Amino acid sequence: MPDKEGATESLGVIRIASDIVAAYVVNNKVSADQLPNLLHDVFGAVSALAEGDHTFAGSREPAVPISKSVTPEHVICLEDGKKLKMLKRYLRTHYSLTPEEYRRKWSLPADYPMVAPNYAKRRSQFAKDIGLGTAATSKRKTVKKRKTAKKRATSGRRKAA
Questions:
Q1: In the chain, how many domains are there?
Q2: Using alpha carbons only, what angle is made at residue 81 by residues 78 and 83, rounded to the nearest 5 degrees?
């Protein structure tokens, strides 16, 4: 019985590979002598996927060496080598990766930056200059002072009219 299951699975792989090649040939110019090699390559890839061999997907080399991927002005994407100031949104829109998945895929440390260092410093300084983070705390303190002052004024007994 295992032979029948293996043969059925093999036929399924052949069918999938032939469908992929047929779709490719319809949309691209392929000579007759290239067709057997194309079919063989696609069949090999589909077979590897069917057997659960996913090593080819993760064995890709980064576009730039990891040690050179962070410069003061840019963070370079390891997927395609593009220089960016902020990597998080680019990864999400182009590769559907979160920063955690990206770090895991390329074996990067948890503190690997997603923003260029100088850009982060400029944004931090800008936030400090406009008072982000300080105005809210000073407002909270003044509101608390007002509330405690009101409580003190109203605490105690009221006089009868």
A1: 2
A2: 105
> Contact at 8 Å (CB) between 91 and 77?
yes
Other Cβ atoms less than 10 A from the Cβ of 116: the count is 21
Measured distance CA(111)–CA(159) in Å, rounded: 64
Of the candidates 89, 84, 87, the residue with the CA atom closest to the CA atom of residue 73: 84
Range of the domain at 117: 60-134
Residues 59-110 have pLDDT tens digits of: 578 999 999 999 999 999 999 999 999 999 999 999 999 999 999 999 999 9
Report the candidate in 50, 77, 47 with the shortest Cα–Cα distance to residue 64: 77
Q: Is 126 helix (H, G, I), strand (E, B) or coil?
A: helix
* CB proximity list for 38: less than 8 A, separation 6 or greater: 21, 24, 25, 30
Query: In terms of domains, do 24 and 69 share one?
Result: no
Tell me if the pTM is above 0.90.
Answer: no
- Are residues 73 and 44 both part of a single domain? no
